[in-house]
Amino acid sequence: MKFTFLNLAAAGLVAAASGPPAGRPAGFKWKSTGPLIGPKDDERKTAGIKDPTVIEINGTYHVFASTARDQGNDSYSLVYINFTDFDKANEAPHHYLDQSGIGKGYRAAPEVFWHAPHKLWYLIFQNGNAAYSTNPKIDDPAGWTAPKNFYAAKPAIVTENIGAGYWVDMWVICDATHCHLFSSDDNGHLYRSETTLADFPAGMSDPVIDLEDANRYALFEAACVYRVGEGRYMLLIEAIGTDEKRYFRSWTSASIRGPWTALADSEENPFARANNVEFEGTPWTKSISHGEVIRVHTAEKPADQNLDIDTSKPLRFLYQGLDPEKDSGSYNALPWRLALLTQVTGA
After folding, report:
1. What is the count of structural domains for the chain?
2. Span 109-125, pLDDT tens digits
3. Exposure string over 69-105, b if 16+ CB within 10 A, otherwise e
4. Which one of 61, 129, 157, 164 has the fewest CB atoms closer than 10 angstroms to its CB?
5. How far apart (Å, rounded) are the C-alpha atoms in residues 294 and 312?
6. Sign of the CA dihedral 88, 94, 100, 106?
7. How many Å is the Cα radius of gyration of the chain?
8. pLDDT at 247 > cutoff 50
9. Range of the domain at 244
C-alpha cells in the first residue's frame, strides 16, 4: 500500500486533529545520516554527546548538548558547538560551559531560545531543579550567567507522582501572554507551569499534569513543543517501545495549554522511530532518542520565544542515537552520538 506522508503543513495539522482523511494515514517518514557529532578525545574523557538543542541563524547552526561520562555527581555538563555544514560538524571546537558562569556540577538537557522582550538568549536545563542562564550573544560561550532556579524546591506534585523516576527535561515556550515550562518525570507524567510573559522568568505557577499514562514508558521524557502555524502547536515526547528502544510520539493542539490530540503517537505510526527511518548504509542505531527539530531563523524571520518551525518545508530533527552493539553497562557511560533526520515528504 502506498501512503501519503504529511509534511505538517498547517492544513495537515488541522486535519490530523480530527483524524486523517480516508485512505491517507497521517504519518512521517525520514532519512537519517550516520553519527555526525561525538565526544572529543581530550582530558574530559566524555563518553557520550546527548540531548541536543539546535537553532540555525543565517546559515550557522548553534548546538548545545549534554556531555556524559560515568563520574558520579560530575557525570553531566553542557557543551556548545557551532558550524555551517553538518558534514563538518564533528570538526568544530567544543566549548565546555562549565568554564562560563554556568559553572561546574550537574547540568544537563539544555534548551536554547531568544527572549525578544529581554533581548537575551535563555538556556534552560536541569540541575536537580529547573534552571536557566542568560547571554546576550548565543555564540559567546563565556557569556552565560550563573544558573538560577525556577522553583525553590522540587514541586509537590512532582514529588507525589514521580515514583522511581527522575524530574527531567525542562522546556520553555511562550505565547502572546504567557511563558510555559514543561517537564517530565520518567514515570508517565508531562507537567506544565506558567508565568506571564511580562514576569518571566519569575513567578512560575505550581505545575499541573497535562498528559499522563499508566505505562511510564509511553510518556517518558524529552518533551518539546513548537508553534507550527498561527494558533497551532505540536508536542513531541520520547517513549520507550516494546522492543526497549526509544522513539518519539507526537500530538497537536490549538493552545499550549492543550488539550492535546494524537498526531502520530504509536509504535506503528510514530513521529520518529527506527521503523519509519531510512538510514544511509547499515542502520547505526535502533533508538531515535532525545533531540530537537531545527528552528531556522534569518533577518527576515528572527528568533523569538514562540519557537516557530516552518512546516511547509521538510523538517530536520537532530537526535541522539546509540550503536546497538554498545548498548549495555552504565547508562552514563553509553556512547551516544548525534545524527540528523530529514523528513521525506511523499512516498
Report:
1. 1
2. 999 999 999 999 999 99
3. beeeeebbbbbbbbbeebeebbebebbbbbebebeee
4. 164
5. 14
6. positive
7. 19
8. yes
9. 10-342
Instruction: Judge whether 107 lies within some domain.
Output: yes
- Is residue 22 in some structural domain? yes
Residue pLDDT, tens place only, 59-104: 999 999 999 998 766 799 999 999 999 999 999 999 999 999 999 9
Rounded to an integer, the average pLDDT of 196-209 is 98
Residue 327 has pLDDT above 80, yes or no: yes
* Three-state DSSP string of the chain: CCCCCCCCCHHHHHHHHCCCCCCCCCCCCEEECCCCECCCCCCCCCCEEEEEEEEEECCEEEEEEEEECCCHHHCEEEEEEEECCHHHHHHCCCEEHHHCCCCCCCCEEEEEEEECCCCEEEEEEECCCEEEEEECCCCCHHHCCCCEECCCCCCHHHHHHCCCCCCEEEEEEECCCEEEEEEECCCCEEEEEEEECCCCCCCCCCCEEEEECCCCCCCCEEEEEEECCCCCEEEEEEEECCCCCEEEEEEEECCCCCCCEEEECCCCCCCECHHHEEECCCCCCCCCEEEEECEEECCCCCCCCCCECCCCCCCEEEEEECCHHHCCCCHHHCCCEEEEEEECCCC
Query: Residue 5: inside a domain, yes or no?
Result: no
Is the N-terminal amide bond of 25 cis, ω within 30° of 0?
A: no
3 lies in some domain: no
Q: What is the CATH number of the domain that holds 240?
A: 2.115.10.20
Average pLDDT for residues 259-271, to the nearest whole number? 97
